[in-house]
Amino acid sequence: MRVPLSWLAEYVDLPEDITVADLHAALVKVGLEEEAEHGFGVTGPVVVGEVLEFTPEPQSNGKTIRWCSVRVAPEGLPAADGGADVRGIVCGAANFEVGDKVVVTLPGAVLPGPFPIAARKTYGHVSDGMIASARELGLGEEHDGILRLVTLGLDPEVGTDALALLGLDDAAVEVNVTPDRGYAFSVRGIAREYSHSTGAAFRDPAGLPAPIEAGGFPVTVDDAEPIRGRTGASVFVTRVVRGIDATRPTPPWLASRLRLAGVRTISLPVDITNYVMFELGQPIHAYDLEKLSGGITVRRATAGETLETLDGQTRKLSPEDLLITDESGPIGLAGVMGGATTEVSDTTRDVLIEAANFDPVSIARTARRHKLPSEASKRFERGVDPAVAAAAAARVAQLLVDLAGGTLDTLGSDLDESAAPAPIPLPDGFIARLIGVDYLDAEIRAALAEIGARVEDADGGLTVTPPTWRPDIVDAPSLAEEVARLAGYDRIPSVLPVAPPGRGLTRSQKLRRSVAQLLAANGGVEVLAFPFVRKEQNDLFGSPEAGEVPAMRLANPLDGEAPFLRTSLLPGLLEIAHRNRSRGFVDLDLYEVGAVFRPEPGVEYGTGFIPPIAALPAREALAAIEAGIPPQPRHVATLRTGASVPKQVGQEPLAADWRDALTDVQRVGAALRVAIRPVQGTHQAFHPGRTARLVVDGPSGEETVGWAGELLPAVAEAADLPSVVAAAELDLERLLVLADPDAHAVPIRALPAATQDLSLVVPVEVPAAEVLAAVAGGAGDLLEDIRLVDDYRGAGVPEGAKSLTFALRFRAEDRTLTAAEASDAKLAGVAEAAARFGAALRE
What we know:
CATH class of the largest domain: Alpha Beta
Helix content: 25-40%
Structural class: alpha+beta
CATH topology of the largest domain: BirA Bifunctional Protein, domain 2
CATH architecture of the largest domain: 2-Layer Sandwich
């Protein structure tokens, strides 16, 4: 919303030296957002001049210029720039005559652009200034000739300051109005907010009663299916002004204010309706009374109806559209745009003024349906004061009388079925509990009275009736916000509230954070990938076996080449790795914690049901929507490429490989206190022989919870990555279920340990992890730690076999172990491995 300072000053006291920055600061204090400042970009000296004489001079380029003698100051007195009172000026326009009063920009002036004015030689003369057009002054788009002041109905003295005369010395403040504060889309609303901020005296431009009682013009509201229980039009005021001269020029003060407000001038009647809309926040529409057929009926459109709007477009109407009609049919889209058949033109003599109040939801839907946003719809969809319609219509009528020469008629209407604002109970202490500030009772009453509310005593508190221009105030928290806003946000303490018991992070949230924090603490960088992928990406990563994977296809995807929701996190990590590597980041350690979408085969998702937006859907509707959503388990995935340990002094680089992927898996298991075991596996996206299936022991036996290893070189190459890419992905949702809620840190044992090594010869196809598990199971509780330290295949080992060497550590909780006890436990482990895999001690 743009508000010229001169306009604002009519309704609230402004300091004489106020700047746009000062006004912005005051409005920000009461919650309005600063946007920009606007002006005409014209600085003086710019004066009124009179053409004394001119000589046409044809030029070789076919153009004819006029060498003019122009008086720019009263005879014998210096001009505004200190120079002579008569100037020689070259002008290319031909629409003026001797004796015309014009606008002269003297040397030193600056026009929008910026375009500085100086005495310069042109067409064989020294032009000591410039005679300006309306467009050069920023007053309009007219550029066919210079601006003749007589066309504006002005006959000022020569030498008069033209900036003040035309309103070019004004400036406007622009603020961003939030959707809940539609009243601030007016000079009236901004003046009130400035008064709230500074205490300056406010004069309500809508405070005067309508000057006449009108009647006799038939208006009917026929809204058989009102939206949300409200009729489409609750107020409909009309007034008639006869005998106007629609060709009269718009006064400069009114035109300049509209230009600063961001609206171009059209014609005097239309400019007046726009002026009052900006002034009071009430959209106004003017009809050519002679073009109307009978009275006005407000109704919904019927199937097949059309309407040509003022922009010349013929629009096919929806049964939800609210229309203004007469006996001939539709003549306007209510609250959005009028129709062409009743448009006010230069030949209009009698005008019907309409000031109505329409349902916000209805207007918003119509404006969006027809892609037809307007200044009127912008105000109606946020809520217009229903009590201001009569004053707005009277204001338009008076301006048409004063500026267009019309005569006020008693013909009109005053339909008002608007509901009074409902009183709101405000319990004692409620605002203090909500805001955290102990406001005095007098402060609360004063703040609420200041916004225009009626405050009355009630048992246990107050009863507050909001003003008609604040439809956003509907409950006690809304009132608390107003008190906090007017009392000053700086009084609210910066103290975090104490979370009520039982409302902290859930167990799942804590564990997910632990996983993310542990991966980040070990050098990983968390990323968030787009969840949209191609079908072949889902088929490659969504299943360990080749084949089509069930996936959700979006009806309206952002990218037509990636219309599916992901079933794996790895495609997104690959794209992010590719993008970073293309920018020179070659050593990458990435991870993501996010949802994947896993529709069950044969299940049809999506109900096709779209609930109405005007009210909260019923529980059944919400349940139907929920049932139409596929399972969305959370996964965690990691990806490494380049060097896991960079080259440095005394250290050669270590390339990332499958070991790093398994390390990440171990870290996730440690964070969740879940034992995740890697076993040899095969996956179509992973390198054969360098792929681990990740399993855990669940209630019903061994469960696969993910995959880890190195991606196929072809997959890496397709993503423009090095041939070795280590990756892992785990079903975090399932791991959270399997995580031990009673897990605790393992106590440190104080007694000495006994260490031994063990080398076993087993068939080469037997996985080392399974041999390790067999030895550990056989060794019993005395075994504290076991790890594989060597895998040897060569001389001294039979063909088709391998030698696995394990380091074992034994410890007892209550005594120091003897070597014999440790050896017995080790041999028990050897016996278990021999029974299961035919393992033999290596000599």
